[in-house]
Amino acid sequence: MSNRVPAKVLLLIGDQAEITTPQRDHTDPERVPADRITQDTGIPREELPGADVVAVVDDAGDLVRFERA
Q1: Do residues 19 and 9 lie in contact, with contact meaning Cβ atoms separated by under 8 Å?
Q2: Is the pLDDT of residue 54 over 90?
């Protein structure tokens, strides 16, 4: 089973994207590979900072994929 939560890409640091979710705010953002978000959503890498997406989270709380918001 999985849940969908709103997420926002704050910025890119190298090949990583810092994102916020209801569980992780800007003081402790989640870091995920930027390419993973672009592959899942089709959003170009240069458009990721500031993008609103949906994070799909499994029962363990792990981000399993991303969707366009």
Answers
A1: yes
A2: yes
Q: What predicted TM-score, i.e. pTM, was given to this entire model?
A: 0.91
Give mean pLDDT, residues 4-19.
97
Q: Which residue has tokens 């990721």?
A: 48
- Please answer whether residues 48 and 34 qualify as being in contact, where contact means their C-beta atoms are separated by less than 8 angstroms: yes
- Tokens 């592959």: give the residue: 39
Q: CA dist 33 to 1, 27, 30, Å?
A: 23, 19, 10
Q: Which residues of the chain form beta strands (DSSP E)?
A: 2-13, 16-20, 30-33, 52-58, 63-68
For 51, the token pair is 């993008």
Angle at 9 between CA 50 and CA 37, to 5 degrees: 120
